[in-house]
Write a structure and sequence with these properties.
With about 325 residues, the protein is of the alpha/beta class. The protein has helices at about 15-25, 45-55, 80-85, 105-115, 130-135, 165-170, 175-180, 195-200, 205-215, 215-225, 225-235, 245-255, 300-310, and strands at about 5-10, 30-35, 65, 120-125, 145-150, 190, 200, 240, 260-270, 280, 290-295. Helix 4 (about 105-115) packs across helix 5 (about 130-135). The structure holds beta-D-ribofuranose and calcium ion. Beta-D-ribofuranose binds near residues 15, 40, 151, 193 and 245.
Length: about 325
């Protein structure tokens, strides 16, 4: 199988880093560019972490382009309480050897999608600010990708950042609204936090397996998710820490891992009390679907992909 040409938009915190590793080191992805945005951490930190993660993935040829440093209309409220002050578990990682590349993320999204129509798969792991800003310039942006996969939303209204909202949509709900207005279900798939909570939880046994693999990549994944593990224990009550961005990346690389999905009309709430909550309209009289929602993913398929990537075993071609 030819590796999938990818453009990845990320606010690189500790789980984005694992997603970048899957894309860059599984043998399934061919990352053409990474764009960064403010979200989990401020923009310069997200960019630094993306560069560092690509080094660990052995993908130092991939250009990294910083983008928007704040949401469309709101101040940035980061998730450093979850991912650590440095977004990578505060374990004292060294600085990356490279710097970011010239060219604003929004220009890169527009330019690469125009130069390679229908070829690139866009994977977003962050607030949708860069994508919305590009859509304001060109409403046909999404149609020029082969497919667009977004880690976004909590379609069951069980949130992580608030009672009912998922961080990426909550952080910039106006950007999410712009993306939803331009989306079509044949082009755009969202993988919400519900999937992460059900099918991507690293249990104590999984964490031990990761440690036992013992490669630099496995050690990297284990160490940087230290603060997320604490947060998950205290806030979510899950049987371990969850990996939202990696399971979204796994769906992009291996769509066959999806076991349940639906096509439905989705909007986003912008008011203060319900900020970022998804409004999933399943009435017969609902507007036509604008999204495909992945609802369940093969947990074993996802974890085998993760462990194999950490072990350095490339996926079969
Ligand atoms: C999303 O927010 C961040 O914490 C993760 O990186 C992921 O993109 C999950 O809600
Ligand atoms: Ca992220």
């Amino acid at each position: 199988m030819t590796p999938l040409p990818l453009l990845i938009d990320t606010d690189t915190g500790s789980d984005d880093a694992v997603a970048l590793l899957l894309a860059g080191a599984s043998g399934l992805g061919d990352i053409r560019a990474v764009t960064t945005v403010a979200g989990n951490v401020p923009l310069p930190t997200a960019t630094r972490n993306a560069l560092l993660s690509l080094e660990v993935a052995g993908a130092t040829h991939v250009p990294v382009h910083p983008g928007c440093e704040r949401p469309m209309t709101r101040p940035l409220i980061s998730a450093q309480n979850v991912h650590g002050e440095d977004g990578m578990g505060d374990v004292g990682l060294p600085d990356p050897v490279r710097s970011s590349d010239p060219g604003h993320a929004v220009e890169v999204l527009l330019d690469l999608s125009r130069r390679h129509p229908g070829e690139l798969t866009l994977v977003t792991l962050a607030p949708l600010t860069n994508i919305a800003a590009a859509l304001l310039r060109d409403r046909d942006l999404l149609s020029r990708f082969r497919h667009v996969y977004c880690m976004a939303g909590a379609p069951d209204a069980r949130g992580n950042v608030s009672a009912t909202a998922e961080f990426n949509v909550w952080a910039d709900p106006e950007a999410a609204r712009i993306v939803l207005e331009a989306a079509t279900p044949d082009k755009v798939t969202w993988i919400g936090w519900d999937v992460s909570r059900k099918d991507a939880v690293m249990t104590p046994a999984d964490q031990e397996r990761l440690e036992a693999i013992g490669t630099p990549r496995a050690e990297f994944v284990h160490r940087i998710n230290r603060t997320v593990a604490e947060w998950a224990r205290e806030v979510t009550g899950l049987a371990g820490y969850d990996l939202p961005d990696p399971i979204a990346m796994a769906v992009a690389l291996r769509p066959d891992l999806v076991t349940e999905s639906e096509q439905v009309h989705v909007d986003v709430a912008l008011g203060d009390e319900v900020r970022g909550q998804l409004i999933v309209d399943r009435r017969l009289s609902a507007p036509p679907p604008n999204l495909t929602l992945a609802r369940r993913v093969s947990e074993s398929g996802f974890k085998e992909l993760l462990f194999a990537t950490c072990a350095g075993a490339l996926q079969p071609a």
